[in-house]
UniProtKB/TrEMBL annotation, chain A:
Name under which the protein is recorded: Carbohydrate ABC transporter permease
Subcellular location: Cell membrane
Limits of the ABC transmembrane type-1 domain: 119-323
GO cellular component: plasma membrane
Domain of life of the organism encoding this protein: Archaea
Primary localization class, coarse: membrane
Organism of this sequence: Natranaeroarchaeum aerophilus
Sorted UniProt keywords: Cell membrane, Membrane, Transmembrane, Transmembrane helix, Transport
Automatic annotation (TrEMBL), chains B, E:
Annotated function: Part of the ABC transporter complex XacGHIJK involved in the uptake of xylose and arabinose. Responsible for energy coupling to the transport system.
PROSITE patterns (UniProt xref): ABC_TRANSPORTER_1, ABC_TRANSPORTER_2
PANTHER family in the cross-refs: MALTODEXTRIN IMPORT ATP-BINDING PROTEIN MSMX, TREHALOSE IMPORT ATP-BINDING PROTEIN SUGC
Subunit structure: The complex is composed of two ATP-binding proteins (XacJ and XacK), two transmembrane proteins (XacH and XacI) and a solute-binding protein (XacG).
Protein name: ABC-type D-xylose/L-arabinose transporter
Enzyme superclass (EC): translocase
Family: Belongs to the ABC transporter superfamily. Carbohydrate uptake transporter-1 (CUT1) (TC 3.A.1.1) family.
Entry's EC annotation: 7.5.2.13
Compartments (UniProt record): Cell membrane
GO BP: any one term: carbohydrate transport
Organism: Natranaeroarchaeum aerophilus
Top-level taxon of origin: Archaea
Automatic annotation (TrEMBL), chain D:
InterPro entries: MetI-like, MetI-like_sf
CDD domains assigned: TM_PBP2
GO CC term (a single one): plasma membrane
Major localization listed first in the record, in broad terms: membrane
Natural source organism: Natranaeroarchaeum aerophilus
Protein name: Sugar ABC transporter permease
Chain ranges passing through the membrane: 28-50, 113-139, 151-172, 201-224, 245-264, 270-296, 308-326
Membrane topology qualifier: Multi-pass membrane protein
Length: 338, 382, 444, 334, 382
């Protein structure tokens, strides 16, 4: 099968070498080459775009990093642009390796509060939540994407309706529900209520994220050729088996995307988690609670917030790196003869 | 015992009836081939048997059990799909062993069977290729291996050899026949390849527009086709047809007359009939000895020659004034089949005879066969 | 992983949670039953979120935490709704007497039901603003704060503005080393309506709801008095400070001593430049003093906030003269707790001088009993030491916020209109007229 | 009857319900598989929504422990729609006048929750889609280092909203950030962008685009990856230029994913709150959800909050209708 | 002018060389068919010509222009893909008209051409079906229509008729030939179907493992195969081979001897050679007149019979003690081709002769052909 490895390279090299360049101005020659060789222009445009995207997406991060390195006393002295506040390279000569910055912020966040525990809580909650979401949404996505039955459209719309409401709209009833003491739960959970229990974060957040996951999976599952599901069923799977053994792996880009989106959402969730836990890391308070610990009634340790946000984003960066193999796996190619 | 029984199976899509009230009884251990024009409903029939499509009406039995509502996995079948349908995310080994792994066979057994199947389809050493890295024929062989690696009661094979070269086709043909004998399974097969249909099957089921036309042994269909459709469909190149009328003396058309006793053949004088004769039953006058009973001689003109290496197809015009229709054989055109070295040219006047015993008569209006082979004439020709 | 702590849980903030052990010790020392353990939960970072948090806990009837640390800015609605324990019959008579007689009266008011006068919360610590300034810079410019006893002698806004202008000018003005002569908080937020605008217009003799006895209600039966001259004065003065005397709706008598960044400033934004050595005067809460001691530039001096008109010159009882918005926190008991008795015992222990002192030393949180502050040893309280005088003065001249059940929505109406007037989107007259209408509506 | 190996007893038991399912009709099967999703949604979404709707028909009660008073019918809705609700910024505040155009803004355009939200949604979703698509196309290419570019492009979406708000708040903070000076220098912003409704609106919009373009990119990328590459071969041979391949193959095939992405982006943008709250503040840029939260958390007017939430849902429903029509046209399942 | 010229084309994948140093010169207007076993590199060659894959080495010219680095759209080609690859989101009309719409033909012209193409592939009335609603053969016909609707300089067709039934195949064959004549285009074709390869092409290019074996007219390949591979590959069923040695008297193997003068045929005594004879050149002794020059008689035993309707394949064992290998024809096995009505049974002793003029000799070691057809013996047989 051919891939995107088209010929621009070869073509570009060839024309580039036999182009007489002596008597042309630099720009003029360049323009002429662009015109005579659109592939090259295309390539340059491509890299320009890529770099522009990179700069715009990464700059705020870079800036956040600079903020983290700024010692607390340096806010407001001069604005932070490309270097952290208080940055003074001349200090290097005096043996100050930090050059007036405060890399210690990245240690302080673990010593002043157990930030790692907060991150762990969020990570665990997000992992469980994501698995739950993907499983439930897979079943529903399969139904909506691949089955024909009466009542499908109304049901699908019903799912969608959930996303019409601001999360706050669910809050008062849910708060009353989750804080009620259920005697049945008493043996499992300390006081029979879900307060301070991870499930009180996982359940509402998963449910509110469910419609998006269902829609994403529906779209991707619908695209898998029927032939493959048929083949799996003949080979001896149930329909559900075919879903998890064939349709899900083949929808890897969609599933991984839904997974990443849901993981990030749950990982960063704050609204429900701040209300369903008492804020102690032992009681499953989430990562964001940890970040916001650095924001007091009056004093806000922006540098520590920045440092902790950077640290908090790391697990997600790793997740994305791992998942991206799946996100970009374009596997269906040549699956069936059509 | 794994007989397969279709009873009144009908499958309707929105605007097409893909399968129309089909009744088919496949014996245990039988090798039956479904043939028919493209879009006639062969694949749909297979899918219904497999349980992948629910029939709109009718019931299906496999091994005496009503399976109409059973899921595919409980029907004891395996299937080669026309569209191949390899799992793109699995390598060859995983594709082939998929069904076995589902059934939790132990690793050794899986390996052994996969190796055996790969051997049969000549795919040794490709075990870790992905489908996207294989040629069309290789993919098809993986699909076959995936089906034969298990030993189900019924094999459904939809065009399993379409992308294979002649040699491999012959090889696979033999292998499938051996497998059939060895495993004592029932095989339902779809092919467009006459050679496969003729050589492999116990019976052929000829389908047209979703309706069963004839179910019989291959030679039976070839020699005694039920109707015009079967006659035209079975045999390649197809039978020659000539529309005409029954006269007192036999058959008369614009170009030819063949004389026989209408009464003795169950036709009425004046009846519109179509006469059919296969290309190999048209002989040069000088070879007329090879016909069991030659008709009178017809003078024809050669049109196009198609040398095939092992044989030579000669298109004939029954008269100089016949328009050579390029769209297959038209009225007044005739095809004959000669040895490869026959010394013949285009646009040459020659004389041919038909083999009387191989002449078929059909009712032009209903298409039903009337007679296969003309009886010797009661009154000897002068 | 559930924990089976069965002591008393106090939801407070992060900083107080840090000194849990010290507080526990001092509570025990103050006579708390040794069997009663406390645990301080960090609670939420922001006062607004904490409000939401407590609201949902109380709405759902949740039993934990046992004690809430509530902002006097929003505790009143809970008190009015009887959602927190009425302490009147719970606390010992001694403690009740001590609180009602010796605690800063304004803090007791914010903790009591305005109708019945029943105490629902134990004031934990009050908070009041001061004017902070860079003593070194002021002295360089030729002033003598100590000699002139700035620390307990309030100036008028006019005097103040001129001093600031002068000092700022001395150091180069807007183009010199200091971007701001003066910083305060003028962002559109609670702090504007409860505090900076409130205290400034009060010092000009204004009032939101007429006489100060109306501050805690009764809602609906009190006048709304915002469409009034002191309000315009305050706004015009602030506009002069930010945009200069020549700007639209600016007060021509006051010089420019800052810039329009103030409309984006909350406490921290105001503190940043000051601590960072970029501002000379600043209105802020005492929390900045330990911070400044740690990392700030120059020497810090404090004084009361300036006043607009002399005390008593106001049309409304209680208004006029130096005014300092009273903030602060109280402890209330969760009625759904299954250990209310223990929780009340913990409160009893908090109403103790040594506990107050411990908290003051550890956290810089002022004692609710002014006597304790007065008797404090300046050398034992760290950075706060030099400022005890000012604090005492300021405490006496504090003005509580008008918290009722309607305050949260009235507050946002106020700060939005005031902010619009500050930024010049509306004239002071229009803004206050609009506000008058809105407040009257909400009072119904 | 089958000669195939039987799985062990345990998994047979487990298989029994699955087998039972296999033989059911498509509809029964569908309902069965939907059960977990609807059970979850039922408890966490539908039940609360019914409650919330009930709340919206009750009277607010600020001075009692119970937040709701008696039944008032649609009074809350009328109050909110006529600009008379007890909220600091109105949902919609239009009065009729006698002269042309017969309608007059009670407060400025960007101070009315409905309008500020609509403007925000239209602008941000438009640019997010555009930029996200561009990013996805870049990420879809094979080039050296693309895995890192991919991470870089996706990562803004991983930033918690509060932090994102903080970043933009600080960038435009006069003390810390450089944003105000820069934008003033360019003549785009006034002196105090965070205090200015228009400038703040732009900041929030840009911040949102910065963050959520990645969401679009991610979904579109997944859509792109699911396209059978051999279709491009066919198109190339048929003579399609890269643009034509995009238009006739990529776009229609990615359309279902794209529309779902836009649909959810739109719904999300309609509910914007966290970003505003943590950067420029709800009083400067009052979105619909801002009103809900203010009434919920600050003023404890829960009936009003429920009413605004339901009105928000109605507005979103109208938008969704448009999408569903597109989704149907694009051949998506529905 | 649209000749196609491959020069030293090589295409390597990670572990396979799919095309190996191929040189091929296709004349303008020529119809050339690539044949070869599954996986030999046919599709890869097509993709290289189309510009979908860059060759690892070598250059490609179309119409005298070096197109090695041109994108597919600028090469003036159209292609039918082996995997069909219909656009799933377009109905039949849109699939077929895709290329035309890209080129902004006006609507009428598009309609006219689409109708014409649909007519050729017999898809009238299916214009608004989606690919998922069609049978395998119907889809393939759409793919063909999509390619023929434009008039490019070069047609590339990879197995375009694999899923069609015999009748349709013949129809399409004729149609493609007409199209070829009418449009005067160059066609490069891949098929596994001998009949197609033989009848349609001007020349056949036989490929094995990526290497070109012979490029010649169909009958040339059939009658004068370059080497053992071509001899075995072309012709179905395949040629019979017998390994033996040259003696003074001619050829000797374990089972047969054929006498001729080694010197006159350019072979050395003692050389290892393989004798090849096609099934149709094996005759019953009683029919030996039909052989131009019969060899001596061999006594053989009939093994399996395969009646095909129009002919009968008879598998022969050269001696009673030969093991009948089921894996195709092994040592000592022979296949012959008889008329359908020949009266013969399994396991019967019969005598056969070969046609001397149709005997091929190959060097067993190199595989190269030595001689096609034995010369009359210098010394007449006694
Ligand atoms: N993408 C790929 N990666 C690795 N190997 C490949 C790839 N594509 C094809 N091959 C290998 O290259 C060889 C030639 O493949 P090609 O598709 O050209 O065969 P073919 O002659 O068309 O066969 P068939 O008749 O079965 O279609 C095969 O061995 C195949 O496995
Ligand atoms: N999903 C479907 N929706 C509508 N019509 C369909 C569908 N699937 C098949 N058909 C139609 O049903 C008829 C029978 O199709 P089927 O696939 O059984 O044909 P076939 O005999 O296998 O043909 P071929 O030899 O071309 O594969 C065809 O006319 C086809 O167009
Ligand atoms: Mg089919
Ligand atoms: Mg191929």
């Amino acid at each position: 099968m051919s891939t995107e490895d088209e010929h621009p390279d070869l073509a570009a090299q060839q024309t580039a070498t036999d182009e007489p360049e002596i008597d042309r101005g630099l720009i003029e020659g360049w323009a002429a080459r662009m015109i005579s060789n659109p592939d090259r222009a295309y390539k340059i445009a491509f890299y320009t775009f890529t770099i522009a995207f990179l700069v715009t997406t990464l700059f705020p991060f870079y800036w956040l990093f600079m903020l983290a390195l700024t010692p607390s006393g340096q806010f407001g002295r001069d604005s932070i642009i490309l270097t952290p506040g208080g940055f003074d390279p001349s200090l290097l000569a005096e043996g100050d390796l930090t050059m007036g910055t405060n890399p210690g912020a990245f240690i302080d966040i673990f010593t002043t509060v157990p930030f790692h525990r907060f991150v762990f809580n969020s990570f665990l909650i997000a992992t469980i939540g994501t698995v739950l979401v993907l499983f439930v949404a897979s079943l529903a996505g399969y139904v909506f994407g691949r089955l024909q039955f009466r009542g499908k459209t109304p049901l699908l719309l019903t799912v969608l309706i959930v996303s019409f409401f601001p999360p706050a709209a669910f809050f008062v009833p849910l708060n009353r529900l989750f804080n009620r003491n259920f005697d049945v739960l008493a043996p499992i959970i300390a006081d029979g209520s879900l307060y301070n229990h991870p499930s009180s974060i996982i359940i509402p957040v998963s449910a509110l994220y469910l419609p998006l996951a269902i829609f994403i999976l529906m779209v991707f599952y619908a695209q898998i050729p029927d032939g493959l599901e048929d083949a799996a069923r003949v080979e001896g799977t149930t329909r559900l088996g075919a879903l998890f053994r064939v349709i899900v792996p083949l929808s890897a880009p969609g599933v991984a995307t839904a997974g990443v989106l849901s993981f990030i959402t749950i990982y960063n969730e704050y609204f429900f988690s701040s209300l369903m836990t008492d804020g102690r890391p032992e009681n499953w308070a989430p990562m964001l609670e940890g970040v916001l610990r650095f924001q007091g009634q009056y004093e806000t340790l922006f540098n520590l917030m920045a440092a902790s946000s950077i640290v908090a984003v790391l697990p997600i960066a790793i997740l994305v790196i791992v998942a991206q193999e799946k996100i970009v796996s374009g596997l269906t190619q040549g699956a069936v003869k059509e | 015992m794994a007989n397969v029984k279709l009873e009144n199976i009908t499958k309707r899509y929105e605007d097409v009836t893909a399968v129309d009230n089909m009744n088919l009884d496949v014996e245990h251990g039988e090798f039956i081939t479904l043939v028919g024009p493209s879009g006639c409903g062969k694949s749909t029939t297979m899918e219904t048997i497999a349980g992948l499509t629910l029939p709109t009406e009718g019931t299906i039995e496999i091994g005496g059990r009503d399976v109409t509502n059973l899921p595919p996995k409980d029907r004891g079948i395996s299937m080669v799909f026309q569209n191949i349908a390899l799992f793109p995310h699995m390598d060859v080994y995983d594709n082939i062993s998929f069904g076995l792994r589902l059934r939790k066979y132990d690793q050794e057994e899986v390996d052994r069977r996969v190796e055996e199947a790969a051997d049969i389809v000549q795919l040794e050493g490709m075990m870790d290729r992905m489908p996207s890295e294989m040629s069309g024929g290789q993919r098809q062989r993986v699909a076959i291996a995936r089906a034969i690696v298990r030993d189900p009661d019924v094999f459904l094979m939809d065009e399993p050899l379409a992308n294979l070269d002649a040699e491999l086709k012959v090889h696979m043909r033999t292998q499938l026949q051996r497998l059939h004998k060895k495993l004592d399974t029932t095989i339902i097969y779809v092919t467009h390849d006459q050679a496969q249909a003729m050589t492999m099957s116990n019976r052929i089921a000829v389908i047209d527009a979703g309706e069963l036309q004839q179910v019989a042994a291959p030679l039976e269909c070839y020699n005694n086709p039920n109707n015009l459709f079967v006659a035209g469909f079975i045999g390649s190149p197809a039978m020659n047809f000539e529309n005409g009328e029954i006269t007192e003396d036999g058959f008369t058309s614009k170009h030819i007359t063949v004389d026989f006793d209408p009464a003795a053949h169950g036709v009425d004088v004046g009846q519109q009939v179509t006469l059919g004769v296969r290309p190999e039953d048209v002989h040069l006058e000088r070879d007329q000895s090879s016909a069991a009973a030659a008709t009178r001689t017809f003078n024809v003109v050669t049109d196009v020659l198609e040398p095939m290496g092992d044989e030579l197809f000669v298109y004939l015009l029954m008269a100089r004034d016949v328009e050579a229709s390029a769209e297959g054989r038209g009225e007044g055109q005739l095809l004959m089949n000669l040895g490869p070295d026959e010394d013949i040219d285009e646009d040459q006047d020659i004389s041919v005879v038909f083999d009387r015993e191989k002449i078929h008569l059909f009712d032009t209006n209903t298409g039903d066969a009337i007679v296969h082979g003309l009886q010797p004439k009661s009154v000897p020709e002068p | 992983l559930g924990d089976d702590f069965d002591g008393i849980e106090i939801s407070a903030d992060d900083q107080i949670a840090d000194v849990e052990d010290v507080i526990q010790e001092s509570l025990w020392d103050a006579g708390l039953d040794e069997d009663i353990e406390i645990r301080i939960l960090p609670g939420d970072f922001e006062t607004d979120s904490r409000l939401a948090d407590y609201q949902s806990a109380l709405d759902a009837g949740r039993g934990s935490p046992d004690i809430f640390m509530m902002d006097s800015g929003w505790a009143m609605p809970f008190i009015i709704r009887e959602q927190v324990l009425n302490l009147e019959n719970e606390l010992s008579d001694d403690t009740l007497d001590y609180v009602k007689n010796d605690y800063l009266p304004a803090t007791v008011d914010t903790a009591s039901d305005p109708e019945t006068g029943d105490l629902h919360g134990l004031p934990f610590f009050p908070d009041y603003p001061m004017m902070n300034y860079r003593k070194d810079l002021v002295e360089e410019a030729g002033y003598d704060p100590e000699g002139e006893d700035w620390s307990t002698t309030p100036m008028s806004w006019q005097e103040f503005a001129e001093v600031v202008e002068d000092v700022w000018e001395y150091h180069g003005g807007p183009d010199g080393d200091y971007d701001y002569g003066f910083t305060t908080q003028a962002q559109a937020y609670e702090g504007l309506s409860c505090c900076t605008f409130n205290e400034t217009m009060t010092s000009f003799g204004g009032a939101y709801f007429g006489d100060h006895e109306n501050l805690f209600g009764p809602t609906g039966d009190r006048p709304v008095t915002v469409d009034d001259e002191p309000m315009y004065e305050t706004i015009r003065m602030m506009r002069s400070f930010m945009y200069g005397p020549d700007a639209d709706d600016a007060h021509p008598d006051y010089p420019q001593i800052s810039n329009s960044d103030l409309v984006e400033f909350g406490e921290e934004e105001a503190r940043g430049p000051f601590t960072g050595g970029n501002a000379i005067f600043m209105r802020n809460w005492p929390y900045i003093i330990p911070i400044h001691a740690d990392e700030g530039e120059g020497e810090i001096g404090t004084m009361p906030l300036p006043y607009g008109v002399e005390e008593g010159e106001s049309e409304y009882e209680g208004a006029g003269g130096p005014s300092h918005a009273l903030g602060g926190w109280m402890l209330t008991v969760n009625p759904n707790s299954d250990a209310t008795d223990d929780a009340v015992q913990v409160l009893e222990a908090f109403a103790n001088e040594s506990v107050m002192l411990t908290v003051f030393e550890e956290q810089g949180n002022l004692p609710p009993d002014p006597e304790v502050l007065a008797n404090a040893d300046p050398d034992a309280v760290g950075a706060m030491g030099p400022h005890l005088d000012t604090l005492a003065f300021v405490g006496e001249n504090s003005v509580p916020r008008p918290v009722t059940d309607l305050w949260p929505e009235q507050s946002s109406l106020i700060y939005q209109e005031v902010h619009d007037a500050y930024t010049g989107e509306k004239t002071p007259e229009d803004a206050m007229a609009d506000l008058q209408g809105q407040l009257e509506d909400s009072e119904q | 009857m089958s000669t195939e190996q039987q799985s062990d007893e345990g998994s047979r038991l487990l298989m029994r319900p699955l087998n039972w399912l296999e033989t059911q009709t498509e509809a029964v099967y569908a309902y069965f598989l939907l059960a977990p999703a609807f059970a979850l949604l039922g408890v966490v979404a539908f039940y609360p929504l019914i409650q919330t709707f009930r709340f919206s028909l009750l009277e607010d009660q600020t001075a009692a422990a119970e937040a709701f008073g008696g039944f008032v019918g649609l009074d809350n809705y009328i109050a909110v729609l006529t600009g008379n609700a007890r909220v600091p910024r109105q949902f919609i505040d239009i009065t009729t006048t006698s002269g042309f155009p017969f309608l007059e803004m009670g407060s400025p355009f960007l101070r009315q929750a409905l309008f500020v939200t609509l403007a925000f949604v239209i602008i941000s979703v438009f640019f997010e889609t555009l930029i996200g698509f561009g990013q996805a196309l870049v990420l879809d290419k094979d080039f050296k280092g693309n895995r890192w570019v991919r991470v870089a492009v996706i990562i803004p979406w991983a930033v918690p909203i509060v932090i994102q708000g903080m970043i933009f708040f600080l960038i435009f903070n006069p003390n810390v950030g450089f944003g105000s000076d820069l934008m003033q220098g360019l003549g785009l912003f006034g002196s105090n962008p965070l205090a200015n409704t228009r400038d703040s609106f732009i900041i929030v919009t840009v911040a949102d685009i910065w963050k959520t373009a990645a969401f679009m990119a991610l979904l579109i990328l997944a859509g792109l990856q699911s396209i059978d590459r051999s279709l491009y071969d066919v198109a190339k041979v048929s003579g399609a230029t890269p643009w034509q391949r995009f238009k006739y193959i990529t776009l229609p095939l990615v359309a279902p994913a794209l529309i779902v992405a836009m649909l959810f982006r739109t719904m999300d943008a309609m509910r914007i709150y966290g970003l505003i709250d943590s950067s420029v503040g709800c009083s400067t840029v009052p979105s619909m959800t801002c009103l809900v939260i203010i009434s919920l958390d600050q003023t404890r007017r829960w009936a009003t909050a429920s009413t605004v939430a339901f009105l928000t849902a109605v507005v979103i429903a109208l938008f969704v209708l448009v999408y569903l029509i597109f989704l149907r046209d694009s051949g998506g399942e529905l």
